[in-house]
Design a protein that fits this description.
361 residues; mainly alpha; DNA polymerase, domain 1; three-stranded antiparallel β-sheet; 7 strands
């Protein structure tokens, strides 16, 4: 039997093992006898079970969620993983042993996943998220010797619907620009004029406004948490068209007149960070009053569609403006073809929306 040794220079307990011609090295950074026992347990588990233990999927999910919580806290990644595991993984595989599952069993989770309430087919996007959760769960299980590696990869079955992105029509844009007493009406206009996600718009502060540009640096998610954005490209600089700048300046003036000691451009009625649920309720109220349609995200989708179809900005420029991730194919979704240069973006966007307002006046 192999014996653990302590590497003083690296501060690690180390033990090497060999089985069936395969050599593995196990480590523990815990000092003292506790670390020695930990590294021995890892070694013994691998020797006894060939790298595979017999825990259930339910137990593995529990350990995986605990690992995510310890590393990232109970934020979006944890919550999304917990929901997908609870709704789709556990109902199918909870009692199954990790070491008995094959790639076909994991694929069955995707193939059989249905909307919980309606039992209808899930969208392609939802299934893609589910696949990511399954892949992450398996990776965690594999590195902890709970299962063998996959031979192959998971896939999304053909025929699942891709989301249809709603946009506002020109006549609806005209009605949206009409004055309103709703507190968040200026925020709706900025989402439309800058193509911002709701969280990004609510995360704007006065210091983010520069000379003809806006620095997108943070967001406020559904749980009221301040985040750094949806993806690595979410932090960006976008042009500030004169039409949007006027709205922002008027909103800041309104906040100051209300004696709010706040940096937030679109705070709640007390000057504190806004709540997405409250903003959505006001949007739904405006929709009913003015016969509009779509969600808050429709404002962002409308921006992309209009800028893509009615300007000459290049595809790469539009992706930069809206902070799409590198592999997000803007034109696969909106089906428009454009050319242009980013330095003219602010002027072009302003002229486009001014023209839309004038044509529908």
């Amino acid at each position: 039997m192999a014996t653990p040794t302590y590497n003083k220079k690296r501060g690690l307990w180390v033990i090497q093992g060999q089985k069936n011609g395969i050599r593995k090295t196990f480590y523990s950074s815990v000092s003292g006898q506790k670390g020695k026992r930990e590294v021995l347990d890892k070694y013994d588990e691998w020797i006894s079970f060939g790298g595979v233990s017999s825990i259930t999927v339910a137990k593995c999910v529990e350990l995986y969620l605990a690992d995510i919580r310890s590393r990232l806290g109970e934020k979006d990644t944890f919550r999304e993983t917990e929901i997908y595991c609870r709704l789709y993984v556990l109902p199918t595989l909870a009692k199954a042993k990790m070491n008995n599952l094959t790639l076909k069993d994991w694929q069955r989770v995707i193939n059989e996943a249905k909307a919980v309430k309606t039992r209808s087919e899930l969208s392609h996007k939802t299934l893609t998220h589910l696949r990511s959760v399954l892949t992450g769960l398996h990776k965690f299980a594999y590195v902890n010797y709970y299962c063998d590696d996959w031979r192959g990869s998971l896939y999304i079955p053909q025929g699942h619907k891709r989301g249809v992105r709603e946009i506002l029509q020109p006549s609806e844009i005209k009605r949206l620009f009409e004055p309103s007493d709703l507190w968040y009406h200026p925020a709706f206009l900025i989402m439309l004029l800058l193509g911002l996600r709701p969280s990004e718009c609510l995360g704007l502060q006065e210091s983010d406004i520069g000379d003809g540009v806006v620095y997108i640096q943070r967001g406020i998610n559904d749980n009221g948490e301040i985040t750094t954005g949806k993806n690595k490209n979410a932090r960006r600089v976008v042009p500030l068209p004169p039409l949007a700048e006027e709205i922002i300046r008027d909103t800041i003036k309104r906040n100051h007149e209300a004696n709010f000691d706040t940096e937030w451009i679109f705070p709640n009625g007390c000057g504190n960070p806004a709540c997405q649920d409250t903003v959505r309720k006001q949007w739904n109220k405006l929709k009913a009053e003015r016969n509009l349609h779509g969600s808050l995200y429709s404002l962002r989708h409308t921006f992309i569609s209009i800028v893509s179809s009615q300007t000459h900005l290049a595809e790469g420029t539009i992706k930069d403006l809206v902070g799409h991730s590198k592999d997000f194919q803007t034109f696969d979704v909106y089906k428009h073809r454009v050319d242009g240069e980013i330095e003219n973006a602010g002027r072009i966007i302003n002229l486009t929306f001014e023209r839309l307002k004038a044509e529908n006046s």
